[in-house]
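Exercise 3.2. Students should predict the tertiary structure of the chain below and write it as structure tokens, then compare their answer with the key that follows.

Predict this chain's 3D structure.
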Amino acid sequence: MSATKNQRVILVTGANKGIGLEVIRKFAKSSSYNNDIILLGTRDLKRGQDALKQLDSPLNVHLFQLDTSSSESISHAVDEIKHKYGGQLDILINNAAIWNEGSTVNEARELLQTNYYGLKLLNEQLFPLLRENGRVVNVSSSAGPWTLYGYSNELREKYLSPSLTIEELDRLIEDYISAIETYNLKTLGYESEIPISPYSFSKVVVDILTRIQARQWSGKKNITTYAVCPGFCSTDLNYRAPGSRSPELGADSILYVVETPQNELENGEFYRDGIKKPQSFQPDIDLGNLIEHVNKSKQS
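Answer key:
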């Protein structure tokens, strides 16, 4: 089925559970999206079908198989939008992400393949399909700005350089991965009190990618790009940590940059609960409890 001129096509990746599923649920319940085509992105079609059942199978929500760690899956997904949905997209919400220990080079590469490289490739391949005033929302985490805050001044300035290119960012990422292998992270300035640092690092580079792609695309079709922290929500990713809030609230944080008029947002910036935040700032929660919970969960 091709989308009509007045229908929006909205894709949410990693949407079969957690925050992504809550975003889809809010779309399905809101009359503002009744006429839109909502694509529920999922790696596993069985899990996607189970998610649809949880939503009572809304007629305008469609299963959409997509594994953001696979370039082949991304290419297939792009072709599906071209052939089934008229080759048009209005809103892309990059919610898919994974977590692992990240203590080895292979684990770090696996994590970054989904959380950074896959996201970057999907954005690049879908950009030609985005219509005028399209929006790209990269779901990030406050762990990114907190982590960047702990880096050395010299390293932080490299990442925050307003002229940084994607090629330069990719080289910084390769340097980071090499430093894991040589146990050289601190020497290079990668100091941080944030736990699960490779995951947190992936959010640092997603935030920086957001700024770069916003700069690249802003003059073309008036496409805007935002990074969003859904807040510290209770999900499988953080082992449903105590003190975390509901995924529904996380979805609201994401929907803020989807629904707010463009002239009230700043392209390329980082938002949390409707507030623009710096891309590097001091942690504003008690990290001690989080670190303790993560360490206990790893051992269980």
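Discussion points: The mean pLDDT is 90. The longest helix spans residues 105-126.
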